[in-house]
Amino acid sequence: MTDADAAGDAGEFQDLEDLPDDPTDREYVERTIRLSEEAVEAGNTPFGALLAVDGEVVGEARNETRTEGDVAAHPELTLARWAAREFDADELEACTMYASTEPCPMCATAIHYAGIGRIVFGVDGETLGELSADVVPIPLEEVIRRADGDTTVEGPIAVEAAMAVHDDFFREP
Ligand SMILES: [Zn+2]
């Protein structure tokens, strides 16, 4: 089911050796926070996400809204679209998406449409909303619930670490 060439569409595999053999949710989220830093280094806003199946990372993505001139180039949407093309329904159900920040309603809807089984995020949108006016204040869990979806939502689990990157980026000097 893993196809490294196809996964390249969703982002590069990079520094994955930093992850232990059997990463915890926290370690996966820390990896997405690293991806959010890499997004900033590339000229974008600080958001990163990855997809894992059976403990293996099958795709990674960084925000590319600025460099692509694409308001929809959120990493969670990139991965949801990629996974829906690559995997069947059972495989999607077995996927966990990790995100540095709670996915926005656009991405939440795509995660639901794709049928991804579980999502875990670092910091909640409400906390980020204290820094950024761009947050649409509809919780991921509410989108999934109102869609009568089956995706399990867990988070926030790494508020301080994820917000440190947002603080550097969004905080007025
Ligand atoms: Zn989004």
UniProtKB/TrEMBL annotation:
Gene3D superfamilies: Cytidine Deaminase, domain 2. It holds the Pfam family dCMP_cyt_deam_1. Residues 1-26 are annotated as: Disordered. InterPro entries: CMP_dCMP_dom, Cytidine_deaminase-like. One of its GO terms (molecular function) is metal ion binding. SUPFAM superfamilies: Cytidine deaminase-like. Residues 23-135 form the CMP/dCMP-type deaminase domain. This is CMP/dCMP deaminase zinc-binding protein. It comes from Halorubrum distributum JCM 9100. The lineage of its organism: Archaea, Methanobacteriati, Methanobacteriota, Stenosarchaea group, Halobacteria.
